[in-house]
Amino acid sequence: MIKSIFFVINTFSGLGGHYYSLVTTATALSRKYNVHIVNLGERVSPVIEKSGLPYTHVFSNFRNQLSVTRNLIQIISGIRPDVIHAFDQTSYMLSFHAAWIKKIPLVVTKCGGPTNPKYPYSNNLIVYTKEDLTFFNSRYTSDQNQVVLIPNRVIPFGQDTERISSLQNKLHLEQKRVVLRIGRIDPFYYETSKQCINLIKELHNLDDSFVLLFVGNIVDRQTMQNMLQDAQGCDFIHFVTDRDYTLNAKELIDIAEIVVGTGRGFMEACSRGKKMMAPNVGQAFPILVDQENFDKVFYYNFSERYHEDKETKIDDIMVKLNTVTPDSSIWFERYFSYKKIEPLYTAFYALLKPTRYLKIFTSINKGLFLLFIHGFINKKR
Predict the structure, then answer these.
(1) What pLDDT does residue 368 have?
(2) pLDDT at residue 377 in the model
(3) CATH code for residues 4-153+337-380
(4) Three-class secondary structure of residue 126 per DSSP
(5) What contacts 24+ positions apart, CB below 8 Å, involve 229-234?
(6) Residue 350: what pLDDT?
(7) Eight-class DSSP state of 208
């Protein structure tokens, strides 16, 4: 009988959506299981640090994999978990040795992103998207593998009225129709950002009460410069990159009427009942999500991989924004509520497949990621 779950995650920026996904999952499961998070990396994610969950930081970089393994084994020996659950590819790679030595089942969650043919082999895999489920079911045809779709989940959260009021006063947003985009500023999301800017320029021409608000951390300064250039001369486009607002930015959602969301951010905005839009690759504007297209956009996790051939006209968007009652609260309760986490994960853990460590090791050594690490280590010697 499973009593203890050991979560492992690696820190890069420490503020991406999958850190919040891990914390949401661990928080929901902590009501039934003993949970402990190990945060690998050079620093602790502030999301994990502020979660209130028990965690241990293990310093990790490209050159100390042996010491990471030793540290993980030592921590596991003390905690004695029944399951080791990695939440990204790097932590999965770094923890499988410890799982093998301690003979503990190993699970990995692929949180999102495009399908990846070089993704390490896993007997026990959780995916967030129907796109990934289709891909991995075609890849793993043996009954020795368990691939399960458990979409990202969100715990209901409040709104920071003080910060919202501060932003409204600072940017003069009272009586404005705010389109909100929350997300880190980097090349990966630039297409979405550009669509948001195209959208607001056209909406503002039709109704000058429309404004666009970007809230996010600057990961890539060149992308920030590109976005500023795209928005040049538009005083109705605002960029908020101050950490006072970007940390737990979901607590600002109620500042907006409309949210352009991707992945977890889309789901969080649904919990607040907002009018929802999502990227539509290759088109000028994001797509307004409704009951008719929801399943198709959801298939790609509300990401920049979704494409609809039919071009959306700005007049049609405006009509719908002015007349349609949003269904986002219904979607949230049906697909994204944290209430379903515990039974879904309990069922998954009850059917764990024996971990085929040799096959994992072989798949990792074939991966470009580990080849890069080997090259990096050799270069430093």
Answers:
(1) 42
(2) 42
(3) 3.40.50.2000
(4) strand
(5) 230/193, 230/194, 230/197, 231/197, 234/197, 234/200, 234/201, 234/204
(6) 92
(7) T
Q: Which amino acid appears at position 90 of this protein?
A: T
pLDDT band at 12 (very low <50, low <70, confident <90, very high): low
Q: Cα 279 to the chain's mean position, in Å?
A: 15
CB 277 within 8 A of CB 297: no
Q: Which residues pair with 85 in a beta bridge?
A: 7, 107
Going by DSSP bridges, is the β-strand pair 177-182/275-278 parallel, antiparallel, or unpaired?
unpaired
Residue 175 has pLDDT above 90, yes or no: yes
User: Rounded to the nearest 10 degrees, how much is the dihedral formed by the CA atoms of 98, 102, 103, 109?
Assistant: -40
Residue with tokens 């959801």: 298
Q: Which two tokens stand for residue 83?
A: 């399951």
Query: Is pLDDT at 378 greater than 50 in this prediction?
Result: no
The confidence score (pLDDT) of residue 13 equals: 55
Alpha-carbon distances of 336 from 32, 251, 253, 266, rounded to whole Å: 20, 17, 17, 10
Q: Do domains 4-153+337-380 and 161-336 have the same CATH topology?
A: yes
Query: CB–CB of 45/26 below 8 Å?
Result: no
How many Å apart are CA 103 and CA 331, to the nearest integer?
A: 40
* 3-class state of residue 330 by DSSP: helix
85-117: pLDDT as tens digits: 999 888 888 888 888 888 899 999 998 788 888
The answer to whether the beta carbons of residues 81 and 5 sit under 8 Å apart is yes
- pLDDT at position 371, please? 40
Query: CA angle at residue 319 from 315 to 324, to 5 degrees?
Result: 150
Taking the C-alpha atoms of 308, 182, 86 and 56 in order, what is their torsion angle to the nearest 10 degrees?
180
Task: Select the CATH number that applies to the domain covering 161-336 from these four: 3.30.750.24, 3.20.20.105, 3.40.50.1100, 3.40.50.2000.
Answer: 3.40.50.2000
Tokens of 344: 């879904």
Residue ranges per structural domain of the chain: 4-153+337-380, 161-336
Rounded to whole angstroms, the Cα distance separating 309 from 334 reads: 28
357: pLDDT confidence band, cut at 50, 70 and 90? low
Would you say the pTM of this structure is higher than 0.90?
no
